[in-house]
Amino acid sequence: MEVVINSCSSSSSFGGLFTPPKVVRCNSLLVTSVKSRLCNSISCISVNSSNRLVASKPKKNDENNSLFWLVRKFNARFALHHVVLFRSNERLLSKLRKHTISLRTLVKSSEKLKDLFPVFCVWIVLGMMLFMAVTAPVTKSPSWALTEENLLFLEAWRTIDRAYVDKGFNGQSWFRYRENALRNEPMNNREQTYAAIKKMLATLDDPFTRFLEPDKFKSLRSGTQGALTGVGLSIGYPTGNDGALSGIMVISASPGGPASRAAISPGDLIMAIDNTSTETMDIYDAAERLQGPEGTEVQLKVRSGSEIKQLSLTRENISLNPVKSRVCETPGLGKGTSKIGYIKLTSFNQNASAAVKEAIETLRRENVDGFVLDLRNNSGGLFPEGIEIAKIWLDKGVIVYICDSRGVRDIYDTDGTNAIAASEPLAVLVNKGTASASEILAGALKDNKRAVLLGEPTFGKGKIQSVFEMSDGSGLAVTVARYETPDHIDINKVFLTHLLI
Q1: What is the phi/psi pair of residue 161, to 5°?
Q2: Transmembrane residues, as ranges (predicted)?
Q3: Tens digits of per-residue pLDDT, 186-224?
Q4: What pTM was computed for the model?
Q5: Would you tell me which of 121, 238, 266, 378 could form a disulfide with 438, CB atoms 3.0–4.6 Å apart?
Q6: Residue 292 and residue 219: Cα distance in Å, rounded?
Q7: How far, in Å, are 88, 118, 486 from residue 114 at the CA level?
């Protein structure tokens, strides 16, 4: 038998916060009614008219009908209101049956109970018992437990949820994706879990937000800590990854390294690594393939302009000392020659700011008249190092605005405390290999009128990534923000053409 009695109130759901149900007896069957709050106690009703008549005039010591009578007295106006037959949870039904027996005992002498206690006291007691009866089974965790693989997936999901720059998550419901993935994606081993995480990140359509297996994460960290074994290339996606070209683009080649000696230049396109096409390869996979034990060889297919070259490079230990400096003498304006301190900054690793300071102090001892900061083919690196180097040259002002989908989130500026070269003439050299943190530094020096910029249009990468280590040693490179120069110029995929002098 199925009984549904309409309610004038809106229906409730078991999916969210639990609201205690009401219990009725209907031809000796337990029925639950879900209501928005436990405000009207318990309604008991019968299906047929004869039962309702008995319930309205219970016989003495009639245990069942006494219960009907008692609750009818409390809730007469709610009879035939908001009652739904509940059959789907047998455990809950069994639990409610046991507690109904307790309720029967409680109201066995309902006439005496009515006389001894005010109506509202009995209402509270019944409500509390009913609440204890149903909250435990309903609010319990799902019958399926989260596995270790599920927990790793959730760790990645939470990292993106908290840190990702686009809180619209590329137009999708991020919470719904989590639920669907936990239900439908196979996560029986680590390989399947990694695949599920990569599939999740792919929905963001952001090539810079990537999952890094433990070995790739270790490789990425080594590249920012001062040394690696490889061919000395900084790589990225072609033309800002706008889809015009496929493959892996050379942003810069470390001076004196294997790639530089083989005449690989910024803008060249790596078409294959060890006979594996790079057409759909991500930059982290490419970086892993380029690195390897010292003395081993790697085969590259490189397109330079219209020429295609097959190259064999021997991996070696690449020293990532990010700064080289020297004194250059140039013809002066009416006073013979001028001494210019030339500083070549190749990357923003953890040694960069200290190395720049040391270079400035060394050149000053040579009585230089000004400085040239060469950022050509500098593909970036650690964002904090870029900020610290800007503070070296600026006595005050905004360095960069960090923005998310809602606008400006953070402002990095300086009060001149760390400035050691804020007054000497300064020129900055840029080209299409100048990217990311290099563009932040160049934009800050230009917009604060601290330096003039000379060269070519820059790469145009205006997004900032942070790298998060996962509990199993893997990592997530996450786009956490985009940046604007002090003049609020967003250069992502636009280049710093406006900086040319």
Answers
A1: -60, -40
A2: 116-134
A3: 999 999 999 999 999 999 998 889 999 998 787 677 655
A4: 0.55
A5: 378
A6: 10
A7: 35, 7, 77
Kindly tell me if the per-residue pLDDT of 5 is higher than 50.
Answer: no
Q: Coil, strand or helix: which one is 91?
A: helix
How high is the pLDDT of residue 71?
Answer: 44
Burial class (CB in 10 A: 0-12, 13-18, 19+), 357: middle
Location of structure tokens 């070519």: 456
Domains within the chain, CATH numbers bracketed: 4-138 (no CATH), 148-205 (3.30.750.44), 229-319 (2.30.42.10), 323-499 (3.90.226.10)
Per-residue pLDDT of 93-118, as tens digits, reads 455 555 555 555 555 555 454 555 45
User: Residue 74 pLDDT > 80, yes or no?
Assistant: no
What 3-state DSSP class applies to 450?
Answer: coil
Stretch 389-410: mean pLDDT: 90
Whether the Cβ atoms of residue 448 and residue 477 lie closer than 8 Å to each other: no
Q: Which contiguous run of DSSP H or E holds residue 399?
A: strand 397-404
Bridge partner residues of 253 (DSSP) = 233
The structure tokens listed for 431 are 């080209």
Question: Cα-flanking dihedrals φ and ψ of residue 176, to 5°?
Answer: -65, -35
Round to whole Å and give the CA distance between 343 and 428.
Answer: 10
Which residue carries 């991996």 as its tokens?
315
DSSP state, residue 365:
T
Q: What confidence category does residue 381 fall into, taking pLDDT thresholds of 50, 70 and 90?
A: confident
d(CA 296, CA 304): 24
Residue 242's alpha-carbon distances to 81, 199, 205, 295, in angstroms, are 61, 21, 12, 36
Q: Does an H or E element contain 464, and which?
A: strand 463-469
The mean per-residue pLDDT over the stretch 150-168 comes to: 94
Task: Tell me which residues are annotated as active site.
Answer: 436, 461
Q: How far is CA 107 from CA 65, 101, 102, 143, 486, in A?
A: 10, 10, 9, 35, 76
Q: Which two tokens stand for residue 22?
A: 């009401």
Q: What separation in angstroms does the CA of 293 have from each of 222, 290, 408?
A: 14, 10, 44
Contacts of 214 (CB under 8 A, 6+ apart): 472, 473, 474, 475
Query: How far is Cα 417 from Cα 414, in angstroms, rounded to an integer?
Result: 7
Where does the pLDDT of residue 419 fall: very low under 50, low under 70, confident under 90, or very high at 90 and above? Answer: very high
Token couple for 348: 């923003």
Closest CA to 74 of 48, 38, 102: 38
